[in-house]
Structures are given as C-alpha cells and as structure tokens.
Amino acid sequence: MSKTLSAEALRSVVAGIIEAVGSSRAEAEQVAANLVLANLSGHDSHGVGMVPRYVDAVAEGGLVPNTAVRVELDAGAMLALDGQGGYGQIVGVQAMELGIARAQELGSCILSLSHAHHLGRIGHFAEMATAQGLVSMHFVNVLSRPVVAPWGGGDGRFGTNPCCIGVPLAGAEPFVLDYATSRVAQGKMRVAHNKGERVPAGYLIDERGAPTDDPGVVVVPQSGGLFGALMTFGEHKGYGMAVACELLGGALTGSGTWHRTPDAARSVYNGMLTVLIDPARLGTRERFEQEASAFVDWLKQSPPGAGFDGVQLAGEPERTARRARERDGIVIDDATWGEIVAAGAQAGVAVQSV
Ligand code: NAD
C-alpha cells in the first residue's frame, strides 16, 4: 500500500510540521517546497522522507530554525559563510544568492559554506546558478554517520559526500550532474533489507570488511554491534572523489571532517565548497556556446545501446520525473507516510486530517 499526493498537498503537510517545530511560515514553506521538489525530481531519498529526521534534529538542538548565514569573510571573489546549523534549504539558498551576485559582479566567486544542516539535493543549487547563465561546481561532505568505506579499507570512514557540476547550455536545458560518491544510497539498502532482497556485488562490505550481498549489514548492527559499509562508486576513482569532497567541503570550508566514533545524534551537517564562473566574463562565451551545443548534439546522435532508449544528459531524468509527478502525483510508501504522520504527532500536528 502507498499513498499518492499532489505536490501542493505534500507541501502543505510538510510546511505545517516544520512551522510547528519553530520555523516562521515563510521558512517552513521554503523548506517544504525544496523537499517536495526533490520528490518531484525523482530523488525520494532527499525529499519529504527527511522530515522526521529534521523534527528530531530540532528537538535535539542540532538544527536551529530561523537561522541565517553569517558572513565570516567577504573579500571580493571569495566569500566564506557559516550556516550556523540552520536549515540547508534556507542557508544554502542564501549562500548561493550571495555567491551568484558576486560572480555576476566580478566574473567568478569561490563560495565556502560551513555548518549547514542537511542541504538536501545539491543539484538545486546548481540549477539556481545555471538559471543565471553561470557554471557551478559543488564539493560537499556529510557529517552524520561514517557509512562509506575507503577503497582498500574495511569499515565506514566518511559519508555519501555528493559532488555536483552545473553547466548552462545556450538555448537548451542545462547539464546538471549531481550524485553521491557512494555506490548506492543508504536509504535504498534499508528498502532492500525490509523486502528481504539481496543486492549486486560491489555495493557493500560486512562488519569484518568482507564483500557481501546482504543489505542488512548497513541497517542493523552485526556481530560485536558493528555495522558494515557502503562502497564508493567507480572503485579507487570514486573513492578519490569522495576524499576530495571531504577535503574541500569539510576541511577547506572549516566545516569539519569525519574523525570520531559515531553517536546516535540525528543531525546531518554539510560543508559545501562552490565555484561559480560567468562564461560571459571568461571571454570564451561564443565558442563555449557553440562547442557545448555541438558536443551535446553529437552525443545525442549515438544510437541507443542494448536496453536503452537513447542517450540522456545529466539533469534530463530529473526534469522528466518532474513532468510526470506534477501530472500524476507523488507516491509515498506506507513506511515513509507512517513516519511523517508520527513526526506530525510529535510536533502537535494531525497530519491525517489534512
Ligand atoms: P543518482 O545515482 O540517481 O545519479 C543522479 C545523476 O545522474 C543526476 O545528475 C542525473 O541527471 C544523472 N543521470 C541519471 N540517469 C542518467 C542517465 N541515464 N544518463 C545520464 N545521466 C543520468 O543520484 P544519487 O547518487 O543517488 O544522488 C541523489 C541525490 O542525493 C543527489 O541530488 C545528491 O545531491 C543527493 N545527496 C545529498 C547528500 C547530502 O548530504 N546533502 C548526500 C548524498 C547525496
């Protein structure tokens, strides 16, 4: 059983809960719109299913409603901001607005954001930049649980560290590459475990560091109370990108890297290093636009491979999902809906009556 809701109905439910745990109405609506957009884009793992965790994080004091970025350094094309534990959907947007204005003024901006609570779908920030004709690169680390193993290592040492690149394309929708550096999302392992399914080789190691196809190793404690870990994508190459995200998103921003024993805290903190470039100011605009369009056309002419309908560009699957889900509604599985109802009750909101 599952529930299908319109985007509007879902936004109203989520905004009601976020407001009830302390946010202004405007903040609650912005957080809700961002989470529902993640569901619309096909990324349910970063959508409204996060609400129960946010409610717990507010109660614990790790997520602070009605908090804005604090400017720590404002030096021309370099901006360093502290998110101060505010909603990532708020401080992330504030940071990008400041960075975009600076890149429009000076041609580029290096934007560092520390201590944001969960920033959600990083592609949202790249889409803000590409909508203004800017190139945008993001390196992000995650402080919540060390669920991903280093290549050659036998336990989890860092988070799912996402990386994202947005490139505007003249007269066409932008390229928006946005992915976690883990081979697969932790949330997908929970679903597989609940269904009693096995997962393909190369996704997981168990608590002793041995390869396994049992998703339970990252969901329930194993022998000795230990957990297994997710692998990175692309073997040593994805591992290197995950470390780059930790070094740039966690260390260079001053946000903090992972080097401690995990606890049960529900907060998720992100550090994000963003590089913004205005192609018009780099002096290559005309050639950039021509060459990028010509390359995309060339890619699209590749004949469909076995089992595929054709070549897509990063960003396309999300836009296709948005059209379908705006039309057909968003399907929320029973377990997720139950958790949202419970989070509502915790916040004093009767969700089922909405
Ligand atoms: P994913 O594996 O679904 O990959 C998504 C990327 O691949 C997108 O850029 C998409 O356009 C592209 N893509 C998908 N299918 C394609 C195809 N057939 N051809 C060409 N391109 C294709 O994503 P993921 O790794 O599961 O990450 C999901 C989301 O989770 C992202 O938005 C990421 O930012 C977010 N995330 C956030 C955090 C955080 O702490 N805030 C942590 C991890 C992940």
Explained architecture:
- The protein has helices at 7-20, 25-40, 51-60, 88-106, 123-130, 186-194, 235-252, 279-282, 285-300, 316-328, 334-347; strands spanning 2-5, 70-75, 78-82, 108-117, 135-143, 162-169, 172-180, 204-205, 211-212, 229-230, 269-277, 330-333.
- With 354 residues, the protein is an alpha+beta fold.
- The strands form three sheets. A seven-stranded mixed sheet has the order 2-3-4-11-5-6-7, sandwiched between helices. Strands 9-8-10 form a three-stranded antiparallel sheet, with no helix packed on it.
- Strand 3, helix 4 (88-106) and strand 4 form a beta-alpha-beta unit.
- Helix 3 runs parallel beside helix 11.
- The chain is globular.
- The two termini are 19 Å apart.
- The structure holds nicotinamide-adenine-dinucleotide (NAD).
- The site of nicotinamide-adenine-dinucleotide (NAD) has 24 residues, from strand 6, strand 7 and helix 10.
